[in-house]
Specification:
11 strands, four-stranded antiparallel beta sheet
Length: 302
């Protein structure tokens, strides 16, 4: 279906929430080269703002905001938000003209899912604007082809256990808000390179891999989550990123000291990096001294 030149422009604004992975286990590499994962997603209050309009005029994507890299984000056709809009149009057989504007507040390339969140927000916006919406199951299918974080970020859930390529999910009840002190860097970590290095190290060690087993009570509250939190990428990313190598021990130490004081606290890296963080009770004042080239961003769970 096409939008006529005389049709009124329709606009939709969506919040694109960042995420952290409180658990991230890398499973076997599939025949096509992709790795399966097991992960616990947690959305954050930190978010980009995505505006989508449908009407006349050429298709357009523009990005601005305080976390935009000085060199930009590269060709728009390779941007995940652009690809999401094209994929949605193809799935809905909707030849619309759309314009997308993204206000960037999530640090770019830091394992916080900013690009995936923007793509998910575009999918939600187009689903709301489309005269023939495709429905949530198809929307999740489209999201799954775009990246492992996108299906979760399409949903309204604040946290979920996901596996496969992130497209199989078990939504979990929201927990009371916790604060996060994120340590972000000027440069991130290439996700493909991190997976490649992890596969190389695993092969060199001769390690076998299988799914982990978790009891349901491990997800019930923050104190229980402390016992299972972990990220397989922490085995290789410190060797790929100087900032992670220096900051990861720092956030682990802060979390350890908070736990000794009786608080639920987690110190780890999110996704394939490079962002490291301490999750802690909101009432706790946390003073993080970080090296040059890093900065601290305060937020909380969504």
């Amino acid at each position: 279906m096409s939008v006529s030149a005389n049709a009124p422009t329709t606009v939709r604004t969506e919040r694109a929430h960042a995420k952290v992975n409180l658990v991230l286990r890398i499973l076997a590499r599939e025949a096509n080269g992709y790795h399966g994962i097991e992960t616990l997603f947690q959305k954050l209050a930190l978010h980009d703002v995505v505006h989508v309009s449908v009407g006349s005029g050429p298709r357009r994507l523009s990005c601005s905001g305080p976390t935009m890299p000085s060199g930009g984000l590269g060709p728009v056709e390779r941007n995940l938000a652009w690809r999401a809009a094209e994929a949605y149009g193809a799935a809905a057989a909707w030849d619309a003209s759309w314009q997308i504007t993204i206000e960037k507040h999530i640090p770019v390339g830091g394992g916080l899912g900013g690009g995936s969140a923007d793509a998910a927000a575009v999918l939600r916006a187009l689903e709301a604007l489309c005269p023939t919406p495709v429905g949530l199951p198809r929307l999740l299918e489209i999201a799954g082809r775009l990246g492992a974080d996108v299906p979760f970020l399409v949903t309204e859930h604040s946290r979920a256990w996901a596996w496969g390529r992130g497209d199989r999910m078990l939504p979990l009840p929201a927990l009371p808000p916790m604060a996060l002190s994120l340590v972000v860097f000027r440069s991130g970590v290439n996700t493909g390179a991190a997976y490649g290095e992890f596969a190389r190290v695993r092969e060199a060690r001769g390690e076998s891999v299988g799914a982990y087993g978790y009891v349901a009570s491990a997800f019930k509250d923050w104190s229980a989550l402390v016992t299972i939190a972990g990220n397989d990428f922490e085995q290789v990313v410190p060797g790929m990123h100087d900032g992670v190598r220096s900051v990861l021990p720092l956030v682990r130490d802060h979390a350890h000291r908070l736990r000794e004081q009786g608080h639920a606290a987690i110190g780890m890296m999110s996704g394939s990096g490079a962002t490291c963080f301490v999750l802690h009770p909101p009432a706790v004042e946390l003073a993080l001294e970080v090296p040059a080239g890093a900065r601290v961003v305060r937020t909380e769970t969504a």
